[in-house]
Amino acid sequence: MTTIHVGNSSPPPSSPGPGLIPHACSASPDLFLKIFPIDFFFLLLFLVCHRVNKQTMNATTAILRRNALRTLRTSSAPLSRFQPISIRNYSASTNYEYILVSEPRPGVGQITLNRPKALNALCTPLITELNSALRDFQTSSTISAILLTGSERAFAAGADIKEMAPLTFSEAYQNSFIESWSDLTTQLKKPLIAAVSGHALGGGCELALMADILYCTATANFGQPEIKLGTIPGAGGSQRLTRAVGKAKAMELILTGKSFSGEEAEKWGVAARVFKSHEELIEGALKTAETIAGYSKVAVQAAKEVVNKSQDLGLRDGVEYERRVFHALFGSQDQKIGMKAFAEKKKADWSHS
Ligand code: CO8
C-alpha cells in the first residue's frame, strides 16, 4: 500500500495580489528609484514600509494557510460545503489517529478503520477523521472509487457507548449529534464500497449500510442491538435496513436486537457478495473498485446518482429523472468516446468529461 497525497499542490502565493492588503507603500520600487535624487528621505521611508508590508503579507499568508489546513483536518461540515482547495499537498495518513488512508490500486482510495482496542467503536474523533478522508478523496483528481473497511475482527462494533452514556437530550439535540454521519452518503459523489468482516453492529451496521456496495465475509456479524441499550438505531438503520430486507425482517431484527450473519446479509440483499475469508473479501472489493475506477468518471457519477434517486422517488418520477440524466450524458465527451470505441472495437480512452 502506498500513502496517498491528494489534491492540487500549488504553493500558496508568496505575496498577495494588488488590492489584497492596500498600503500606501505598495508602489513599484523603480518609480521611487527615479525620484531618488529628488527626495532621499521619501525613498528611505518607502523601503522601510515596503519591507514591513512584505513581512506582514508573508506572515498573513502563512497564518491563512495554517488555518485552512487545520479547518480541513478537523471540520465535520457537510461535503457540499467543501470546495477544492489548492493547499492540499500533504500525506493524508500521517496525522490520523483512528484511520489509515492509502491508495492500494490506481484510482482506488482505501480507508481502514483503525481503533483495534475498542473494536473500531465509532467515537466522534474517528468520524471526524473519516469525514475528512472522504472529503479528500472526493476532491482528489486521481481517486475514482473508495473502499471502506475495518479489521478482520471488526468493521465497527457500533457508536462509542462510553462516549454516548453521559450525553443528555439537550446536548444531543442542540449539537445535532451524529447528523454529520449521513453526509457521508448524501454528499459523496464517488462510489463507496464497504468491505465488512467481523462485527458490524449498531452504528457500524448503519455505516456499512450507507455504502453504495456492501461486501462481507460469510461470518460477518451484523445487527442493530440498540434496543438492548435502551435506545434505537440513530444513523439510518431503521430506514436503510428496512428498505434492504423489508419491514417484517427489519422489525424483528430491530425489536429483538438479534444479529445476522454475512451469509444471511447476502441472501437478504443487504450485501452484494459474500466471501469465505478476510483476504478474499479485501481482494474482491479492491477488484470491484478498480473496475469502477476504469470507467468514465462522469458516467460513474451519473449512475450512482440515478440509483440513489430510486431510494427517494416514486417509480414514475425516478424513471423520468433517470431519462433526464441519460439525455444529459449525450452532452459528455465520454459518451462519444465510449460508443465510438465500441464501434471501432477499441478500448475506450476516457476523457472524464
Ligand atoms: N463502544 C465502546 N467500546 C466498545 C464498543 C462500543 N460500541 N464495542 C466494544 N467496545 C470495547 C469494549 O468495551 C472492550 O473494551 P475494554 O477492553 O476496554 O473493556 C473492547 O471494545 C473489546 O470488546 P469486548 O471485550 O466486549 O469483546 P468481545 O469479543 O467479548 O465482544 C462485542 C465483542 C460482541 C462486539 C461486544 O464488544 C459488544 O457487544 N459491543 C457493543 C455492541 C453494541 O451494542 N453496539 C451498538 C452500540 S449503540 C449504537 O451504535 C447506536 C447507534 C446510534 C447512531 C450512531 C451514534 C453515533
Automatic annotation (TrEMBL):
Name the UniProt key words of this record, in alphabetical order.
Fatty acid metabolism, Lipid metabolism, Lyase
Q: Which GO terms describe its biological process?
A: fatty acid beta-oxidation
Q: Which GO terms describe its molecular function?
A: enoyl-CoA hydratase activity
Annotated SUPFAM superfamilies? ClpP/crotonase
Enzyme Commission numbers on file: 4.2.1.17
Q: Name one GO cellular component term.
A: mitochondrion
Q: Does the keyword Lyase apply?
A: yes
In Swiss-Prot or TrEMBL terms, this protein is called Probable enoyl-CoA hydratase, mitochondrial
Its organism's taxonomic lineage begins at: Eukaryota, Fungi, Dikarya, Ascomycota, Pezizomycotina
